[in-house]
Amino acid sequence: MLGFVQGGRMQRAFFKQSSRLTIGEIVELTGAEPVDRNAPLDRVINDAAPLDLAGPSDITFMDNVRYLDSLASTRAAACLIAEPFVSNSPPGLILLRCEQPYRAFVAVQRVLYPDAMRPASLFGADGVSPGAVVHSSARLEPGAVIDPGAVIGPEARIGCGTVIGPAAVIGPGVHIGRNCSIGAGCSITHALIGDRVIIHPGCRIGQDGFGYLRGKAGAEKIPQLGRVIIQDDVEIGANTTIDRGSMRDTYIGEGTKIDNLVQIGHNCSIGRHCIIVAQSGLSGSVTLEDYVVLGARVGIVEHMTVGRGAQIAARSSVITNVPPNARFGGLFKAKPITIAAREVVAFERLARRPGTHSAESES
Question: How is 169-225 classified by DSSP, letter by letter?
């Protein structure tokens, strides 16, 4: 079996490092302050790693009391560190004090490994690969990359720097902007997509919304005539589905991040910079205003609105409108999180009352 850890540190075989940074460049990049005024700003940092895996040419970070033991034993050259932990640091470790060490650490990683920011061609290709099928009326800007097995339909448009993964299908008239990444096996129809959008493998975007009229003869299909509009800088996780609209468009606002295995129904309107975590499901015509956060497995019934900045706890069922900046939770009916927490405590107290019949008392 191949070794993934050598000499006590992780080997990043799948990502090529673009550059190295000096301590001084890291200070400039992150705004961190060297604790020692005589810190060697010209010292070269080769990599970024967690406390326990960092080697003598790496930078690490420290922002949590749970990792004091790892801080004491780290072999890192330098550490981005929060003020409360400076006094716990071992001798010889170059300390770079900052308010948000992890955010600074991520900034360093982004510079060291820019290729990890979005998926590249899985075939290592440039241009249209052998085995890809591109319709004669499709328009590809110079610099677009089409991997083997991909199908680009009539009148589709693909922007410069965009990568279409193996076996992806881009339907007729679909527009995809510049510097996007469309993962392997995706199918995208009836959609207009902005720049710098990442769509991970297996996504289904633009298929029919789930719309039927029930009657004596059964369920009669409603035509789904809308589109999916995805603005700039959106990221959509693997195997997520986004239905096209019926009478109006399904809309995903700029900067929104959607996890794996999310279902977004027809006519939904998702605002800017929302976070939707895995296995959440939005029924038709749901509106999320800007900066909404949905925890894992949240379900929202049709035509509900979640106000700007609201947060919904994991596994909540939303059956009413949620006001702006509210924090809701609840398995059967989402409600203000403080009420949901009090209900849980009340149920637990009730279960512990003398004479209360429970499975525990039977055992």
Answer: EE-TT-EE-SS-EE-TT-EE-SEEE-SS-EE-TT-EESPPP--EEEETTEEEEPP--
Residues in contact with 219: Cβ distance below 8 Å, sequence separation at least 6, in sequence order: 212, 213
Active-site annotation holds for 273 = no
Helix or strand (DSSP H, E) at 317:
strand 317-318
User: How far apart are the C-alpha atoms of 196 and 8, rounded to whole Å?
Assistant: 36
Contact between 101 and 80 (Cβ < 8 Å): yes
How many angstroms separate the CA atoms of 196 and 198, rounded? 7
Comparing CA positions, the residue from 131, 140, 182, 185 lying closest to residue 158 is 140
Q: Which of 276, 271, 290 is nearest to 318 (CA)?
A: 276
Indicate left, alpha or beta for 358 from its phi (over 0: left) and psi (-120 to 50: alpha).
Answer: beta
Name the burial class of residue 19, with classes exposed (0-12), middle (13-18) and buried (19+) by CB atoms within 10 angstroms of its CB.
exposed
Predicted structure pTM score? 0.88
Mean pLDDT computed over 223-248: 97
Can you read off the two tokens belonging to residue 122? 């899985």
Instruction: Give the N- to C-terminal CA distance of the chain in Å, as an integer.
Output: 47
Mean pLDDT over the full length of the chain? 93
Please pick, among 266, 273, 303, 357, the residue that the annotation labels catalytic: 266
Nearest CA to 15 among 143, 147, 110, 107? 110
The per-residue pLDDT for range 262-293, each reduced to its tens digit, is 999 999 999 999 999 999 999 999 999 999 99
The H-or-E segment that residue 34 falls in is strand 33-34
> Which of 106, 8, 4, 114 is CA-nearest to residue 51?
8
